[in-house]
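Sequence design from tokenized structure. All designs in this work follow the same two-part layout: the structure record, then the generated sequence. An example of the structure record is given first.
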């Protein structure tokens, strides 16, 4: 099996929507059933990649369908769900923090290994109510406070930075990185996303015809996904990689017309070794 890992660093807010709504939010983001974490489902990501290919390749539709497939025929590649790795959370003690948790780091390591990328990541597991961070004594995230524990996260930052496109973000990653317990991270994943009120006005009377609330994932969030090719179709993976050589950006999810969904893309190949 040959596979690559693509990093998706959100340049703008993301709205990978779902068909079902819950509570007062009319248009929530898609979430994993078991964890409740935001997710960009594989079918949506694959569709975005296919649209990008149509715009940038000189290949005819038959060739594109051979790589991405059509409804009744599988293509040369498989695209997994894009999983969240870093979630920006407002901090009252400084700039926002990039929050993650041991479970996300564990499955990131497993996914890298599945793609054939060497990863032997070790990290501490904080207890609930504590945060591993560079902060002194107390860390405030939104309305919650955490006892700060200063442990070395440089190895974690090295691995994560490999799927962040911008060097400027990598340079400040270690300073803003926070590892929470799985339960504490779940709180921010559930309640820490932005909810926007949107309104459609009657052009003549300027009165509201439709008011709705939609959830978005904040800019500077980090997702990643695996691109897996079928045996004998390795060249398709190389062709897909070339999509992002000149313009390393991809629009995913909804609300494209209001500028949402743009991500900076990185590409990690099978056989890669990450080192400090």
């Amino acid at each position: 099996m040959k596979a690559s890992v693509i990093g998706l660093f959100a340049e703008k807010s993301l709205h990978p929507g779902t068909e079902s709504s819950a509570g007062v939010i009319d248009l929530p983001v898609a979430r994993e059933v078991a964890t409740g974490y935001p997710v960009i489902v594989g079918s949506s990501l694959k569709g975005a990649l296919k649209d990008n290919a149509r715009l940038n390749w000189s290949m005819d539709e038959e060739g594109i369908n051979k790589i991405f497939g059509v409804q009744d025929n599988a293509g040369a590649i498989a695209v997994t769900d894009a999983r969240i790795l870093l979630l920006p959370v407002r901090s009252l003690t400084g700039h926002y923090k990039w929050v993650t948790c041991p479970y996300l780091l564990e499955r990131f390591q497993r996914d890298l290994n599945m793609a054939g990328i060497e990863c032997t990541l070790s990290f501490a597991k904080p207890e609930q109510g504590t945060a591993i961070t560079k902060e002194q004594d107390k860390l405030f995230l939104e309305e919650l406070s955490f006892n700060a524990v200063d442990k070395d996260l440089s190895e974690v930052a090295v691995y994560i930075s490999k799927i962040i496109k911008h060097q400027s973000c990598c340079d400040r990653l270690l300073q803003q990185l926070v590892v929470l317990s799985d339960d504490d991270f779940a709180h921010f994943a559930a309640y820490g996303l932005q909810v926007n009120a949107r309104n459609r006005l009657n052009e003549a009377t300027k009165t509201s015809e439709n008011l709705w609330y939609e959830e978005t994932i904040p800019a500077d969030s980090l997702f990643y996904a695996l691109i897996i090719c079928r045996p004998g179709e390795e060249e398709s993976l190389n062709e897909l990689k070339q999509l992002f050589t000149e313009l390393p950006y991809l629009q995913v999810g909804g609300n494209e017309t209001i500028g949402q969904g743009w991500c900076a893309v990185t590409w990690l190949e099978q056989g890669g070794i990450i080192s400090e």
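The two ends are 27 Å apart (CA to CA). We note this feature because it recurs in several other targets discussed in the main text.
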